[in-house]
Amino acid sequence: MSLASRDQWPESSFVGQLQETERAALLAAGAPIRFDDNAILLLQGEIAECVYVLTNGLVKVIVAAESGAETTLAIRSRGDLVGEFALLDEKPRTATARAVGEVTALKIGGSAFVQITGESAAMQGAVTRYLLAKMRSTTERRAAERVWDAKERLAQVLYDLGRLHAQPGPDGSVRVPITQSELGDLAGVAVSTTERVLKDLRKQGAVTTRYREITIRDMAYLDSLRFP
């Protein structure tokens, strides 16, 4: 089955939401590329010259302060676009994108991407909806930080990561290659609190943890904890 088939992509991803004609045009414009673990796809502050369509693996989006401290803002996975925002607003990139494990992608030049989106009203609409969904997600997460407690927020982030960005193993468990610090960043929770909540979740049998990895053992339990 070709990559242009909708069945090959997560339904919630950018590529998965495209119509067949637009999806085929987008994928045809890309050149396959591979990144090793921890490799940088895009660098904060650089001028945008391309976008990536992720075909396999996870990418974390990070912003660095002047002090050098890094905060993980988001996780991107198969079917997602990476780098489109700076290309469209013609300003330097506001974050760095780094591979989590091996990542494969299609690299699309900036002019080609702009041409594809400019020639199709359907593609323009898809890109707009994708950008708005990212903005909505950020707004909802910030609002949750003021309303929901740390355990609810961490359960929500873990549930979303397991549902959207990872593949279940033979036993139904879901491996998420993320550190406890990165999980805390995504949920807006301090590292010490994240460690405490994960300890409780381990006692409940909901998760297990190891270096740079959290394995979800009970998605239903996380679902019961997360905010409505």
What are the key terms here?
228 residues; alpha+beta; Jelly Rolls; six-stranded antiparallel β-sheet; three-stranded antiparallel β-sheet; 9 helices; 25% strand
Summarize the model shown:
Residues 14-134 form the Cyclic nucleotide-binding domain. It comes from Trebonia kvetii. With 228 residues, the protein is an alpha+beta fold.
Descriptive account of the structure:
Pfam families: cNMP_binding (PF00027), HTH_Crp_2 (PF13545). One of its GO terms (cellular component) is cytosol. This protein is an alpha+beta fold and 228 residues long. The chain has two domains: 6-143, Jelly Rolls (Sandwich), CATH 2.60.120; 148-225, Jelly Rolls (Sandwich). The chain has helices at 14-17, 20-28, 84-89, 110-119, 121-147, 150-164, 180-187, 191-203, 219-225, and strands at 31-35, 40-42, 50-64, 70-76, 81-82, 96-109, 174-176, 207-210, 213-216. The strands form two sheets. Strands 1, 2, 3, 4, 5 and 6 form a six-stranded antiparallel beta sheet that branches. It has a three-stranded antiparallel beta sheet with strand order 7-9-8. Helix 6 (150-164) crosses helix 9 (219-225) and helix 7 (180-187) packs across helix 8. The protein is globular and about 55 Å long. The mean pLDDT is 87.
As residue ranges, the low-confidence spans are: none
Structural class: alpha+beta
- Care to count the β-strands? 9
Shape: globular
Cα-based radius of gyration, to the nearest Å: 18 Å
C-alpha termini separation: 38 Å
Order of helices and strands: HHEEEEEHEHHHEHHEEH
Per the CATH scheme, the topology name of the largest domain is Jelly Rolls
CATH superfamily of the largest domain, by name, is Jelly Rolls
Strand content: 25-35%
Number of domains: 2
CATH class of the largest domain equals Mainly Beta
